[in-house]
Specification:
Distance between the termini of chain A: 22 Å
Helix content of chain A: over 70%
CATH architecture of the largest domain in chain B: Sandwich
Helix content of chain B: 10-25%
Largest interface: A-B, 95 and 69 residues
Largest sheet of chain B: 8 strands, mixed
CATH class of the largest domain in chain B: Mainly Beta
Shape of chain B: elongated
Mean pLDDT of chain A: 93
Order of helices and strands of chain A: HHHHHHHHHHH
Strand content of chain A: under 5%
Number of strands of chain B: 34
Number of helices of chain A: 11
Radius of gyration of chain B: 30 Å
Radius of gyration of chain A: 22 Å
Low-confidence stretches of chain A: none
Oligomer: heterodimer
Structural class of chain B: alpha+beta
Number of domains of chain A: 1
Number of domains of chain B: 3
CATH topology of the largest domain in chain B: Immunoglobulin-like
Number of helices of chain B: 11
Chain lengths: ~325, ~675
């Protein structure tokens, strides 16, 4: 099976580029630390020298949190008990599928956009590394590749936003109105619930499909040497249409790995009591290993897609 | 004399079968009794029929006219007071077609029987009144002048032909698909007190007020409909035209509501809630909530069992709990011996749904139904006490519920976080914190600043006040007080001063200083630790009595510390508050501050420093808007901000990777 061969190839290529994965993970960590510092200070100031600090070490003081929430602004509004454990994952999934990005506080939204642009830049480096025979990672060649492809990748980014927010975003709104209309005349909450669930799955599928197509567009630009962005996009669409089984199977196989890793993380996190310094440190390490795995899976996807793209004879 | 209306009624109406063979003794004077025979036309959504109203003037003044509520006229046009007040809160009137509006119309009203008066057609003298806001488009109150005044103690019987069009659901009542929930649906006489009619218009944020009596109601419905109502079903008679007439009866209540739908699943069981005390529980359940049946019934059982101990033995023969239909807007509402819950088909145990709302609405059976609180003028005497009751019973029965949130409609529990009773539905204190300076508790319901203020001051602030009062008085004294208040005012109409009297009696002191601050004022309650200061005692250095002394440098081996703690009152509410002080050597002491002045300083000398101070350590002052400033410690743990920043950072890092889907 094409997808299985390239699923394994992609994993091996990622393994060979472990230093690159580590570099990307460190960037994610450093980026997050920029906002984590003010959040730390907000929490520290709020706990002050009260005994809330004791209570929040032992567990979660929801009385304190309501006070905090009632006076929080901006970044602080993102601190909720729903970020604990599985809540983080579910919050982000909901944000993605229900396209609630613009409900994020402006500072986080701007930060997120900056991260996206940074990753667009870095994608050139990732694809350059994976395009090589042995996936050697040196910072210099990585950044050179990133810089070389960035203008066209940035254009692709803007085009992808047309698809994401124009197509998927409007479809999401339309789905919402269909669900609301159904709910108006429904005999019970069940039909609108399932309809909403189906629509959410469709939106997720659409978002992932758009992402996959643009991945191949980037691959065509970086690995094939195509210089025309629009032609690369057109070729990517044709490639996916001609090879739906292989492309979707590869994508969802790696997505399944992502899901499995997420479940393992949630289960492991729940086992670690964070009432002492040791527990907090262990939990932090588990968290970072999870993010490292997520970054690695992202790279694995690119590697697998390059491998698949090269594996299938091109008639584009 | 009023109880004798029964034999009198039987004498007068024996041929009409208007009054029942009552199987139980009435529990109080039957002031406003209704015998109704109505028919539902499901094609036109129309209820039509006749009510015989037997009413007694219980005031000490004569009554020259009679006032009626016609609540459903609030739904007859978009300019009613009800819709205008909602519009002020940003809820526009609905865009109804001609078939969606509701109304309640009196066809005729006749004085049909009186010992000394003649029969008289009062219909030409019926006119609408707007006692609250002079809104001429509002026809929810009507009055009719009597040909002769009714003396104190005299009774009158009226025959009222009426029709009521069932509206599309807006609030609490209506028809959705084939499910009817019918409340406040008939011409209902107001309350005559001290020579005045207490009969307010239907407001957006108020509920109801009426006198007690017997309701004997025959409702003719399509035979496929399952029906439930206030009271016991005495009879169910199939008619030859495909309809069935259901007859329900209940004495000693001040309202009658009913529901009918072809979809209800009906479950009934006898329940012994105390030795020798039984009631019949009926659950009308939506088919898609079948798996919630036992949870609903168990919640009712917990409620009736505990409420009977705490607030008086439940006196009615029946309890009917209705699982409201989707979109019916009838959920979470109370009527005597009949109430609606509210559930979602995925509701999980431990979240408080549907148990919490079930217990709450049953609880209204005490402070709205048995204690005839005036929900227009003193909403808190019902909603506040009921909110307190439901949390006491829920938490005793089920413990603290888990925090939960719906993702894609699926409830996900966060079992590491439970909701303490002080927060109950999680928004209690937050809403109080946001709205404390808008209004005070005691206000006519429609005169609050907005809906949020009404909810805070009718429900949340009174509940928090009662919890604070409970902890101030002590649980036993408070429990005795509330039971006595409840049982004393069954079938009567208490005022705030009656509640004050009960509290003061059991507190052993005049408690108006406490209650006034919450009920008649809108002040914040906030006590805080101001500062902690520890300093080693200094030996004398300098001149004294002509002798110069030079202090030795450095600290003595076993220094004595001069320590001070300053506590502050940051809000307007003044209430005694406990201060607990912990020393580094393990000693602790608790002081009570009268909380009157803006601050107080306490000084200590001893071998150890003050390590920690807690203001209100036992969380008696539940209304304190800021509990974080109630404590201060010299050894603030450093781990908490690190721990939670780390957890938050995971969310952010993961979110950034998700956002990557939209980019590289």
């Amino acid at each position: 099976m094409k997808f299985w061969i390239n699923f394994r190839r992609g994993f091996n290529m990622t393994k060979n580029a472990a230093r690159m994965v580590l570099f990307l993970f460190v960037l994610n960590l450093l980026f997050a630390l920029i906002l984590a510092v003010p959040m730390y200070h907000s929490l520290k100031d709020s706990f002050g020298s009260s005994d809330v600090g004791e209570k929040m070490t032992e567990g979660f003081d929801i009385l304190w949190w309501h006070e905090f929430q009632d006076q929080s602004e901006g970044l602080e509004t993102t601190f909720t008990p729903f970020i604990i454990g599985k809540g983080s994952i579910l919050n982000n999934l909901e944000m993605l599928v229900q396209m609630k990005l613009f409900s994020l506080p402006p500072v986080v939204l701007v930060f997120g956009i900056a991260y996206i642009i940074l990753q667009t830049f870095l994608a050139g480096g990732i694809l350059t590394t994976f395009s090589r025979k042995k996936q050697e990672f040196t910072l210099e060649s990585f950044l050179r590749g990133a810089g070389r492809h960035f203008p066209r990748f940035f254009l692709l980014l803007l085009l992808s936003w047309l698809f994401f927010f124009g197509l998927a975003g409007n479809l999401n709104l339309w789905f919402g109105s269909v669900v609301a209309k159904t709910a108006e005349n429904a005999l019970s909450e069940i039909a609108p619930f399932y309809l909403s669930l189906v629509f959410s799955a469709l939106i997720l599928f659409l978002i992932l499909l758009i992402k996959m197509i643009f991945d191949y567009a980037r691959i065509i630009l970086a690995a094939d040497g195509e210089r025309n962005t629009l032609r690369a996009l057109g070729n990517a669409i044709r490639f996916v249409i001609k090879n739906p089984g292989a492309t979707l199977s590869l994508f969802y196989a790696i997505f399944a790995v992502h899901l499995a890793v997420t479940v393992v993380y949630i289960l492991l996190k729940e086992l670690v009591p964070e009432t002492q310094a040791t527990g907090i440190l262990i939990a932090f390490v588990i968290q970072q290993l999870f993010i490292f795995a997520v970054v690695g899976i992202r790279c694995w996807l690119y590697a697998g897609e390059i491998a698949l793209y090269r594996y299938i004879p091109s008639d584009l | 004399m009023l109880r004798s209306i029964f034999p009198l009624g039987i004498l007068l109406f024996g041929t009409l079968g208007a009054f029942p063979a009552v199987s139980e003794e009435a529990l109080c004077d039957q002031i406003a009794s209704y015998t109704m025979n109505v028919r539902l036309d499901p094609e036109k959504h129309l209820i039509s029929g006749t009510e015989y109203l037997s009413w007694t003037n219980t005031s000490e003044k004569e009554a020259g006219e009679l006032w009626f509520h016609l609540y459903w006229n609030a739904f007859q046009n978009n300019q009613s007071t009800f819709f205008q007040e909602r519009a002020r809160d940003g809820i526009p009137p609905p865009d109804f077609s001609i078939d969606d509006w509701g109304y309640c119309r009196i066809g005729s009203i006749r004085l049909v029987s009186h010992e000394t008066k003649q029969e008289f057609d009062l219909t030409p003298f019926l006119e609408f009144r707007q006692p609250d806001d002079a809104n001429v488009f509002d026809q929810t109150v009507a009055a009719v002048e009597l040909p002769e005044s009714l003396e104190p103690g005299e009774s009158i019987t009226l025959k009222i032909d009426f029709s009521a069009r069932v509206p599309r659901p807006v609030s609490r009542t209506g028809v959705y698909r084939e499910t009817y929930f019918i409340a406040q649906w008939f011409p209902k006489i107001g309350v005559y007190q001290n020579g005045n009619w207490n009969c307010h218009q239907y407001h957006a944020y108020s509920e109801y007020f009426a006198d007690y009596g017997t309701y004997d109601v025959r409702i003719t419905l399509p035979s496929s409909y399952v029906a439930g109502a206030t009271g016991k079903r005495l009879e169910k008679k199939a008619n030859s035209d495909g309809t069935t007439t259901h007859r329900f009866i209940q004495h000693s209540v001040h309202d009658f509501a009913w529901t009918a739908s072809p979809y209800y699943l009906e479950f009934t069981e006898e329940f012994e809630f105390a030795p020798g005390k039984r009631t019949e529980i009926t659950l009308l359940l939506q088919p898609y909530h079948r798996r919630l049946k036992d949870r609903y019934i168990n919640a009712v059982k917990h409620a009736v069992r505990q409420a009977s101990v705490r607030y008086g033995s439940y006196p009615y023969a029946t309890i009917t709990c209705v699982d409201p239909a989707y979109n019916s807007r009838s959920g979470g509402m109370e009527y005597p011996a009949f109430f609606t819950g509210g559930a979602h088909f995925l509701d999980r145990p431990g979240t408080g749904r549907p148990e919490g709302v079930t217990i709450h609405e049953f609880g209204h059976g005490y402070f709205y139904a048995l204690v005839g609180s005036n929900e227009f003028e003193n909403a808190w005497l019902d909603e506040g006490l009921t909110s307190f009751l439901d949390s006491e019973i829920y938490y005793a029965a089920y413990g603290e519920p888990f925090l939960f949130r719906r993702y894609f409609g699926i409830p996900v529990l966060f079992k590491d976080v439970t909701i303490p009773i002080e927060l109950e539905d999680s928004s209690l204190i937050s809403q109080w914190r946001r709205t404390w300076n808008m209004d005070r508790i005691q206000r006519y319901s429609w005169k609050f600043m907005n809906k949020e203020s009404y909810v805070t001051n009718a429900y949340f602030k009174p509940e928090l006040m009662l919890r604070t009062l409970q902890r101030y008085m002590g649980k036993e004294a408070f429990a005795a007080m509330i039971k006595e208040y409840s049982e004393t005012w069954w079938f009567k109409h208490p005022r705030p001063e009656d509640f004050y009297a009960a509290v003061s009696r059991h507190a052993g002191e005049d408690m108006s200083w406490f209650l006034d601050q919450f009920i008649y004022k809108s002040e914040k309650l906030d006590y805080a630790v101001g500062s902690i200061r520890n300093a080693p005692r200094q030996a004398l250095s300098g001149w004294l009595d002509g002798v110069f002394r030079q202090r030795e440098p450095g600290l003595p081996e076993d220094p004595i510390y001069e320590s001070e703690v300053t506590v502050r009152r940051l809000g307007g509410v003044r209430i005694p508050v406990e201060i607990q002080i912990f020393f580094e050597d393990g000693r602790e002491t608790t002081i009570t501050w009268d909380g009157q002045y803006r601050w107080k300083r306490y000084a200590f000398s001893g071998p150890a420093k003050i390590e920690k101070v807690l203001v209100d350590p036992d969380f008696k002052l539940v209304l304190d808007t800021n509990r974080t400033n109630n404590s201060r410690t010299l050894k603030a743990p450093k781990l908490a901000p690190l721990k939670w920043t780390s957890n938050w950072m995971l969310w952010l890092q993961h979110a950034l990777e998700f956002l990557n889907l939209f980019g590289g």
